């Protein structure tokens, strides 16, 4: 039986497929600021669930309302933008994880409060980083056309960083050495309870 309109939900505002059926962007479900509405948020999350997205990635600074995804059975990640000095590592981690999901056939949805310059720049950066469109100016133009807005200075900086880590990937982070395992059953004085023959030592002596 076909699902009713309520069960299907409604499309989030400014929803766009960057890569058809694999990678998309939209505004924060329910809207942002004073325009945020609880009922609309619920309907848009239902729509996201019904489209079969593997998970949602929120780039918003605040984690507000992310628990609503749990309530409606949608997996999510919270990945706000870091400080500028951490940006190359952040982008490389985001892009490598995203490429793994796309290669596996999963659909992923990114959102910020709005479809911002940073969000569009992140997407254009992935397009050029993944070599879907290797030339920076073409990748930027394609992404701008998809989302219907021009990329500003902050977004272009993200694309530039994406090219840098594509051409010279960052090395893996060094792993922190594991703490030594302490045998709590061992004698703290280091005494051996057996003699050289392997028999129990006589505590009373000979």
The portion of residues assigned to helices is 25-40%
Number of helices: 7
User: Terminal Cα separation, in Å?
Assistant: 90 Å
Shape: globular
Name the helix and strand elements from N-terminus to C-terminus, one letter apiece: HEEHEHEHEHHH
Given helix and strand content, the structural type is alpha/beta
Sequence stretches where pLDDT stays below 50 over 5 or more residues: 191-206
Main beta sheet: 5 strands, mixed
Estimate the mean pLDDT confidence: 87
Question: What would your notes on this structure say?
Answer:
This protein is an alpha/beta fold and 206 residues long. Helices cover 38% and strands 9% of the residues. It has seven helices and five strands; from the N terminus they run H-E-E-H-E-H-E-H-E-H-H-H. The chain has a five-stranded mixed beta sheet with strand order 1-2-5-3-4.
Q: What would the keywords be for this entry?
A:
globular, alpha/beta, 206 residues, 38% helix, five-stranded mixed β-sheet, disordered C terminus
At a glance:
With 206 residues, the protein is of the alpha/beta class. The protein has helices at residues 5-8, 38-50, 67-71, 87-103, 117-129, 136-147, 153-167; strands at 16-19, 23-26, 55-58, 76-78, 108-111.
